[in-house]
Specification:
Elements: H1 2-11, H2 15-18, E1 92-94, E2 103-105, H3 120-131, H4 137-146, H5 153-166, H6 168-179, E3 185-191, E4 204-211, E5 214-215
Antiparallel strand pairs: 1-2, 3-4, 4-5
Helix pairs in contact: 3-5, 4-5
């Protein structure tokens, strides 16, 4: 009995806490809220009831549009890339002056390859896919084939090379801008020579100047 009474006395100060209600744990919400899309184009698309559905299911009367009343929601959609052939027709003009046979022809669209058949948009897209999205040219040709365009990877290479020539002034200006700064990051990477190795042959070195995360 002494032991029982002693045990009751020792546990008296903690007994009330044994029967307290456990605090409610707030359940975490599943998912997350919609991400604000400020850089996407926003277009409006209105949906209407089909003619057979424009009848009231309660009384059989005609349903009329409630002006200005909609149920709204956002829908993220994707527009598939397509390739097409534009038939370019450059209008010709002739002088109606007396004894004048002068003829003028309207200018056509710009191209990175003079006399080529690919638009500037096409060349920029190929270069962007390769150097921004790291999509090899061969893989691009397969993707283009699935969309109906038959083209060789050599053609895509020619387009990117021609585009690069047009961008040389911008490249040089960026390089000069970087070298004007007080602090410039420099990275070097070895580049093996694509030739028969001989004794003492050293790999080439490729240098990169960086500023603010941009390469030149």
């Amino acid at each position: 009995m002494i032991l029982v009474e002693q045990l009751k006395a020792e546990t008296a100060h903690i007994a009330p806490t044994l029967f307290k209600k456990k605090p409610k744990i707030k359940k975490l919400k599943k998912g997350h809220g919609p991400t604000e899309q400020t850089r996407l184009e926003h277009v409006e698309e209105v949906f209407h009831l089909d003619a057979p559905d424009q009848m009231c299911p309660s009384c059989g009367g005609d349903l009329e549009e409630w002006e200005g009343q909609f149920e709204g929601a956002d829908l993220i959609d994707v527009v598939e890339k397509i390739y097409l052939v534009k038939k370019i027709k450059r209008q010709k003009y002739r002088c109606n002056g007396k004894n004048c046979n002068h003829i003028e022809t309207a200018l056509g669209p710009d191209k990175v390859v003079k006399g080529g058949r690919y638009s500037v948009n096409f060349s920029v897209d190929v270069a962007s896919e390769k150097y921004t999205n790291h999509m090899p040219l061969e893989r691009q040709t397969r993707a283009m084939k699935r969309l109906g365009l038959k083209v060789k990877s050599q053609t895509l290479w020619d387009q990117t090379q021609a585009l690069a020539k047009h961008l040389v002034p911008s490249y040089d200006a960026l390089h000069a801008h970087i070298l004007e700064k007080k602090i410039v990051g420099i990275d070097t990477t070895s580049w093996p020579k694509l030739m028969k190795k001989t004794q003492g042959t050293k790999p080439w070195q490729m240098w990169s100047h960086t500023l603010g995360g941009q390469h030149a």
